[in-house]
């Protein structure tokens, strides 16, 4: 699917909420999403819709992460709101895009800069964001030497030392990634059940779209063949030679 799957699902929830409110249902995206079951957007299959509600959006983990994200967006950090510039794209997707662009895995600092600097000015979005980057680079030189090519993509211990350590299972600057070093090296393999459901539903929807496209193409070809057959029949009725007649004469 061309659009990012979480964005598609977010729009689906928002569309469902509008339908529910139009029916005078007292629902909200922060409340019980079971209330949205009967207000499925017409472009998503019922089985996919119910699977997302039952296995993802109403789980305690989803609710906890949703509330945590809401709290983080309102959290003050060094006098400014804690935020990043990554948009709705996941940190994994940012890493993938950077790797394709750089033709190599990005370093921790490169990925961190992408997520915490303004695109127009390349300035860090908060004083802390800039301080952590500077402190980390200085500490890495002290620990591994001046040749940055000999440095690891990221040193978790050093990063935690300069950024404030692990808080509630998270390391500052890397979102939900609990082990940034392994994540950058490509060795992290922790997958949640919600992610499995997301992937399965996304693949099923993509396969269904591909099947529909193939079906439409087959119908188009069939219509084309029928059209040619009718045209060929009209020529014979009029006594005109068809392409097959010309071939028989050769």
From TrEMBL:
Comp. bias (Polar residues): 82-91
Protein name: Transposase, Ptta/En/Spm, plant
Species annotation: Lactuca saligna
N-terminal signal peptide: none
Annotated region (Disordered), positions in chain: 67-95
GO biological process, one term: transposition
